[in-house]
Description:
The complex is a heterodimer of chains A (281) and B (296). Chain A is an all-alpha fold and 281 residues long.
Amino acid sequence: xxxxxxxxxxxxxxxxxxxxxxxxxxxxxxxxxxxxxxxxxxxxxxxxxxxxxxxxxxxxxxxxxxxxxxxxxxxxxxxxxxxxxxxxxxxxxxxxxxxxxxxxxxxxxxxxxxxxxxxxxxxxxxxxxxxxxxxxxxxxxxxxxxxxxxxxxxxxxxxxxxxxxxxxxxxxxxxxxxxxxxxxxxxxxxxxxxxxxxxxxxxxxxxxxxxxxxxxxxxxxxxxxxxxxxxxxxxxxxxxxxxxxxxxxxxxxxxxxxxxxxxxxxxxxxxxxxxxxxxxx
Amino acid sequence: xxxxxxxxxxxxxxxxxxxxxxxxxxxxxxxxxxxxxxxxxxxxxxxxxxxxxxxxxxxxxxxxxxxxxxxxxxxxxxxxxxxxxxxxxxxxxxxxxxxxxxxxxxxxxxxxxxxxxxxxxxxxxxxxxxxxxxxxxxxxxxxxxxxxxxxxxxxxxxxxxxxxxxxxxxxxxxxxxxxxxxxxxxxxxxxxxxxxxxxxxxxxxxxxxxxxxxxxxxxxxxxxxxxxxxxxxxxxxxxxxxxxxxxxxxxxxxxxxxxxxxxxxxxxxxxxxxxxxxxxxxxxxxxxxxxxxxxx
Lengths: 281, 296
């Protein structure tokens, strides 16, 4: 009995870890195994046809790429600037404590509430209508707290001596940030930005009422018009199509393309982080 | 540029950067104001008592009824189910990674968990329809297996990465001297983990659970796709449910703007917002307690 207990104890933890890995395996295996047959050059380079039962998903891919770019344009400059304020300029006061509390709570706000906010503010309030721009702005706001948090972490890792050296040779504070601190923190910032954008690319709820459409007639996107996006396309094919069984292979193909986009972005981030951590040693 | 110009430029930039720091306050305040404003418009037409105690959510019927209870019970049901499944698995995995796994295994497991966190919720919902649904249907003899249990299983998968990473941080934050003292009096690795490390990390683990709950309550696409979305009052894990998030997702696209129904959706969103805010604040309280406790 005494010999058996360590095995049971160790086995319990191993079982937990194994189950979590099993989940990931099932997700990847099923999507790849059943999605791969649908993948072809035609699938990612042509328009949908015959009431979505045939053809490709080109407009959904271009829509997601454009949407992610707009998200980046909105959230990256603002987020980095806010992080610079928090880490480089701000002293620990009630104001910065409020700002930090806001950031933490913003990252906990459900994405569907960002969708409602985007609907009330951009679509109706600013009269931008349901459009690529409204949806991009909404996702930009959603991404903001994540960009701030990861950028601030990257800035915090730069030692104070680096800043002091720049100031000592006569740089102003902004010059020291621009020419010394930011370049040193760049890999860390980039990792955070790419991870945040990969999350934004997979979001569905915030774009549902702010501009995404099941079908549009052109592969290119216009800022003031509705657009198609991969996650929403998958949702519609999986639940709302009249001939669900007929379009199931297309749904699998879309899911696989979506998860590949997200994972490629993630691997890019891992690579940047890995390469950077090697340089440090 | 001369010194004076550079210093002036420095001041201008400082002011500009400082003003962007305020944006997050404006954003959170703006979201809260937007929700309250529209919820208020709703409560001008429907009494708060009917809203809170109503057991029917039938906004499009002839006699429209806006009772939040069925939605609230649905959300609570799937959240509890997800936590029952995710908390033991999450803590076990975190303990394995921080206490037992070697460096090599860690380097595989940590990216794997980040990968799991990166899977979009709509893809998880899709797998709920094509894998978990048929599996449950087969198991309990239902036609499609789209019910609260399905949603809870999927949500547990989505909450796991959060619970694991935060719990692991908490376990790693426990000072080594605690463990060494435990080993010193003759405890083995398991006894130390159960009796010393996990209790010492308890506030951090509670924070992890809170963050997991926050994520689960607010998750939309998975429950929208996997729980069946029946409007009836929920009856247990094997029945179809319709959560707050799913209701907003389904109905916001259909209702005309500025109607009672439209405002009603903002009212339930306000309830959702307050729930997640409360959960996050409780979680933050535990994080702070954990920090204070171990820095003392």
